[in-house]
């Protein structure tokens, strides 16, 4: 790992100010992705702005309409939170399935969403739940947030403060994990809202997390696993690598989506 | 640091595992990979299991850190979880063992009477190249039982 400067931020405004004053800075949340990349010299920022001590980024709270999770909430905190389990149990279950216990004790929601790994779990929840990403300067709708592989709508130095998840009527996330890494080979989050059904797929897309309008329309008409029989996704838009071909992923999307609908109904 | 106050100034890029091993001489946390996947380096940070190879030493500033060395009683007696690994043949070369024990203790904190399935799930982030895991699972089950009995 190359040398860098380490600065602690005391509150969100301080973090943003430090970022704008530094040359080539990155925010440090849990570091489970960033430090791993720095060790391999895939990233070499000159300055890390550490968010760990910002209490304002940590809370988890709900009202009748939505659940709000602070950017620095760890995966373990979300998985164990009674508020999350009461309002959106599918989200607690998703968090409980990220990586392994040590990664969950340190990795955060904000870091996962900002990183937008095409095989990460949280992006599927953000998109299917039609969540709003709150930053230090604005609110970004899920549909506008994820813009490509490891790409988001965040401007340089823009800090995620929290994610607000509308509470669905029914929801479930099912992932087919890569047996070695536990990242999603295919993960499908299905959410039934008063306004309709949203289906988001992670792990499979050639350009990251995506929605499946054909599944959504069929499930809005009839919310049952076999409602999407005969429907599929085009392998041309899917990733193909040593782990799985695009055709295999396309097949899994249908299988896992049906399991997710069944789980949402259970 | 294992109940002792430690003051040190380190370069920002120092990993916690290197600080433990090279500066403090606590070589119980092992380095088994470059990719944060093997769990051999697992220690407790404020009571939670973490991979010390994937954290900066400065991220542990002000926190309580416990390593495998910190489990042994003042009179040298093994922790019940360590004893269970010995009694159940839960190790062969021993390289993964400190991480296995620290992860097992994090599990017991969350679930004092874990099932075998839960033990396997909780050891997801710890790889062992020797044992085939069966005896590790048996050891964790027995260690948890011994800890319940000891109260
Ligand atoms: C062994 C292993 C297995 C894993 N398995 C999975 C898995 O199965 N599924 C999965 O989804 N993930 C997995 N992960 C990734 C894990 O979830 C990470 O914790 C997560 O991707 C990043 O969170 P972090 O807090 O560690 O962020 P960091 O590594 O600290 O940061 C990641 C990026 O986000 C930026 N950032 C962080 N916080 C903010 C913020 N508030 N505002 C703006 N930018 C920010 C950083 O600058 C950096 O660019 C795994 C990681 C490891 C090491
Ligand atoms: S050395 Fe392999 S996970 Fe830390
Ligand atoms: S006992 Fe040798 S790696 Fe586990």
Provide structural commentary.
The complex is a heterodimer of chains A (266) and B (151). In chain A, 33% of the residues lie in helices and 25% in strands. Chain A has a 5-stranded antiparallel β-sheet. A 4-stranded antiparallel β-sheet of chain A has the order 11-12-13-14, sandwiched between helices. Chain A starts with a strand and ends with a helix. Chain A folds into 3 domains: 5-50, Uridine Diphospho-n-acetylenolpyruvylglucosamine Reductase, domain 2 (2-Layer Sandwich); 56-166, Uridine Diphospho-n-acetylenolpyruvylglucosamine Reductase, domain 3 (2-Layer Sandwich); 170-265, CO dehydrogenase flavoprotein, C-terminal domain (Enolase-like, domain 1). Chain A is of the alpha+beta class. The mean pLDDT of chain A is 97. Chain B has 151 residues and is mainly α. Chain B has 2 domains: 16-71, Beta-grasp domain (Ubiquitin-like (UB roll)); 80-150, Orthogonal Bundle (DNA polymerase, domain 1). Chain B contains 5 helices and 3 strands. Chain B has helices at 16-23, 80-87, 97-110, 116-122, 134-150, and strands at residues 42-45, 48-51, 65-66. A 3-stranded antiparallel β-sheet of chain B has the order 2-1-3, with helices on one face. Chain B is globular, with a radius of gyration of 15 Å. At the A-B interface, helix 2 and helix 6 of A face strand 2 and helix 3 of B. The structure holds flavin-adenine dinucleotide (FAD) and FE2/S2 (inorganic) cluster (FES) (2 copies). One FE2/S2 (inorganic) cluster is lined by residues 31-33, 36-41, 51, 53 of chain B.
Give start-end ranges of low-pLDDT stretches of chain A: none
Total separate domains of chain B:
2
The kinds of small molecule bound in this structure are: flavin-adenine dinucleotide, FE2/S2 (inorganic) cluster
Number of strands of chain A: 14
Gyration radius from CA atoms of chain A, angstroms? 18 Å
Tally of helical runs of chain A: 11
State the CATH architecture of the largest domain in chain A.
2-Layer Sandwich
The SS-based structural class of chain A is alpha+beta
N-to-C SSE series of chain A? EHEHEEEHHHHHHEEHEEEEEEEHH
Given the structure, what is the number of helices of chain B? 5
The ordered string of helix (H) and strand (E) elements of chain B is HEEEHHHH
Structural class label of chain B:
mainly alpha
CATH architecture of the largest domain in chain B: Orthogonal Bundle
Tertiary shape of chain B: globular
- Percentage of residues assigned to helices of chain A: 25-40%
**What is the CATH superfamily label of the largest domain in chain B?**
[2Fe-2S]-binding domain
| Percent helix range of chain B | 25-40%
Mean pLDDT of chain B: 97
Task: Output the radius of gyration of chain B.
Answer: 15 Å
């Amino acid at each position: 790992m190359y040398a860098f400067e380490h600065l602690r931020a005391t509150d969100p405004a301080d973090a943003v100010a430090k970022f704008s004053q530094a040359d080539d800075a990155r925010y440090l949340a849990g570091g489970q992705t960033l430090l791993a990349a720095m060790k391999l010299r895939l990233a070499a920022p000159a300055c890390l702005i550490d968010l760990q001590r910002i209490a304002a980024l940590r809370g988890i709270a709900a009202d009748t309409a939505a659940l709000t999770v602070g950017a620095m909430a760890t995966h373990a905190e979300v998985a164990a939170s009674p508020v999350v389990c009461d309002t959106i149990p599918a989200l607690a279950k998703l968090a409980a399935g990220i990586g392994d216990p040590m990664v969950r004790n340190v990795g955060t929601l904000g870091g996962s969403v900002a990183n937008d790994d095409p095989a990460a779990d949280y992006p599927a929840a953000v998109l299917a739940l039609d969540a709003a990403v709150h930053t230090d300067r604005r609110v970004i709708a899920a549909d506008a947030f994820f813009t490509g592989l490891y790409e988001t709508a965040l401007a340089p130095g823009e800090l995620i403060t929290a994610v607000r998840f509308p509470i669905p009527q029914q929801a479930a996330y099912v992932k087919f994990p890569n047996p070695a890494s536990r990242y999603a080979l295919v993960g499908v989050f299905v959410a039934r809202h008063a306004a309709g059904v949203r289906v988001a797929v992670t792990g499979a897309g050639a350009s990251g997390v995506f929605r499946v309008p054909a599944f959504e329309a069929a499930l809005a008409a009839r919310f049952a696993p076999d409602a999407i029989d005969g429907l599929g996704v085009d392998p041309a838009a899917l990733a193909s690598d040593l782990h799985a071909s695009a055709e295999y992923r396309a097949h899994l999307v249908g299988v896992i989506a049906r399991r997710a609908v069944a789980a949402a109904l259970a | 640091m294992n109940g002792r106050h430690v003051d040190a100034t380190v370069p920002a890029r120092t990993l916690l595992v290197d600080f433990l091993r090279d500066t403090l001489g606590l070589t119980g946390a092992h380095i088994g990979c470059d990719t944060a996947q093997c769990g051999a380096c697992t220690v407790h940070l404020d009571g939670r299991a973490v991979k010390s190879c994937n954290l900066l030493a400065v991220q542990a500033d002000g926190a309580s850190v416990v390593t495998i060395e910190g489990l042994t009683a003042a009179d040298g007696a093994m922790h019940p979880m360590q004893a269970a690994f010995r009694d159940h043949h839960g190790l062969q070369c021993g390289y993964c063992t400190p991480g296995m024990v620290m992860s097992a203790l994090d599990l017991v904190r969350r679930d004092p009477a874990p099932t075998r399935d839960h033990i396997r799930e909780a050891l997801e982030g710890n790889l062992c190249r020797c044992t085939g895991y069966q005896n590790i699972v048996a050891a964790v089950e027995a260690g948890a039982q011994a800890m319940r009995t000891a109260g």
